[in-house]
Specification:
It is a single chain. By secondary structure, the chain is an alpha+beta fold. 39% of the residues lie in helices and 21% in strands. The protein has helices at 43-57, 70-81, 87-101, 119-131, 136-144, 149-154, 223-230, 234-247, 254-257, 293-311, 326-344; strands spanning 6-18, 30-33, 36-41, 65-67, 115-117, 170-172, 175-177, 184-190, 204-222, 265-271, 317-320. The strands form 2 sheets. Strands 1, 2, 3, 6, 7, 8, 9, 10 and 11 form a 9-stranded antiparallel sheet that branches. Helix 8 (234-247) runs antiparallel to helix 11. It starts with 5 loop residues before the first strand and ends with a helix.
Length: 347
């Protein structure tokens, strides 16, 4: 396979008044860029929702679980393989298996940190547990093979044993507004439904900080790294990642604001040089004289064309909203990735 094959996803998404990602004070996250304050949504917040959406798009066998309750997960797999085994015995086997694998647990049967497991890996460890294997290499091999789609995309880190790590094939940027923002406050009251007429005043007073923004969102997938861990499934994984990136959205304060939206502009490219984040299109904040979205799209296209011309780095393929809908775009991306993988194998 060629050393450099990337799928870059660029999105412009209008979000009405909302507080989808808060900082430690409860305020919507922000960042200073181009000399002005922008709305910001962290990559962690968006990736969390993407991973949740993977469970809707793929089967349980294809999606990983990130948890501290690893022993229970292994014990459940042990019981699936041996219906007659008691809960206590299954847990003991699971704890012994994890110990043999070099993964520590505390007195409550929890791992000290979150660990990403695929269903196939849990079953492989459970199989060794039932055999009461004590071979650390067997356990390590079980934990190094058959990663789930989301594990291959988002990576796994096991500090206790770096050999069990998976390098993430995908990178997700923090979303930022294409324009300056100023957070606002919603002053609200709650009325006591059983209050008497003579009981003046509200039962509760409060404020919620919010903003509204047109966000630029960017992500990239390293196809070479993805193919290394998933093989022929890489094309399907990219399709799933792109769909989740477009449809998923952090849910902070959504009951208060009902702010769920879908992207207004999608631009996906296949590159064979390097990933290219095009946030520079908005280093000078969009003015918003007639709204932000149309000017943001114009800015994006102009900047992309300038960068491509200056560095002679136009992408090999481009998909965007217009004559193509999301299903056509996703299938096009999948087919192009699979074609590239076939070329690399000389097929």
């Amino acid at each position: 396979m060629k050393n450099n094959i990337y799928v870059d996803i660029h999105v412009l998404q209008n979000v009405p008044p909302s507080c989808i990602n808060r900082d430690d004070t409860g305020s919507p996250k922000t960042a200073k860029y181009g000399g002005v304050v922008r709305a910001r949504v962290s990559s962690q917040a968006w990736k969390h929702e993407m991973r949740k959406m993977f469970r809707e798009l793929r089967s349980e066998e294809e999606v990983g679980i990130r948890t501290k309750k690893v022993p229970q997960m292994i014990a459940d797999a042990v019981k699936e393989m041996d219906n007659g085994i008691e809960d206590e015995k299954a847990m003991k086997l699971a704890l012994n298996a994890l110990g043999n694998a070099g993964i520590k647990t505390d007195k409550e049967g929890l791992s000290p940190v979150l660990i990403f497991f695929s269903a196939a890996q849990a079953k492989a460890v459970a199989h060794l547990a039932i055999r009461e294997s004590k071979d650390k290499k067997e356990y390590q091999n079980a934990l190094k093979t058959a990663p789930s789609m989301d594990m291959a995309l988002f990576g796994r880190m096991v500090a206790a044993d770096p050999s069990l790590n998976f390098d993430a094939a995908a990178q997700v940027a923090h979303a930022i507004s294409t324009h300056a923002v100023h957070n606002e406050y919603d002053y609200f009251t709650a009325v006591d439904d059983l209050a008497q007429d003579e009981e003046a005043g509200a039962g509760h007073l409060g404020t919620v900080e919010f903003n509204s923004a047109t966000l630029y969102r960017y992500a990239t997938v390293n196809i070479v790294e993805l193919q290394k861990n998933l093989g022929a499934q890489a094309g399907e994984a990219v399709k799933c990642f792109a769909e989740a990136f477009m449809k998923a959205m952090p849910t902070g304060k959504q009951n208060t604001f009902a702010n769920r939206t879908l992207p207004d502009f999608v631009y996906i490219v296949l590159r064979t040089d390097q990933p290219v984040n095009l946030a520079g299109a908005f280093e000078k904040p969009v003015s918003g004289v007639n709204g932000y979205l149309e000017e943001s799209e114009t800015r994006f296209r102009e900047y992309a064309g300038t960068i491509y011309r200056k560095f002679a780095c136009a992408p090999e393929k481009v998909w965007e909203f217009g004559e193509m809908d999301i299903l056509q775009i996703l299938e096009g991306v999948k087919s192009a990735v699979e074609e590239k993988m076939s070329e690399s194998r000389g097929e």
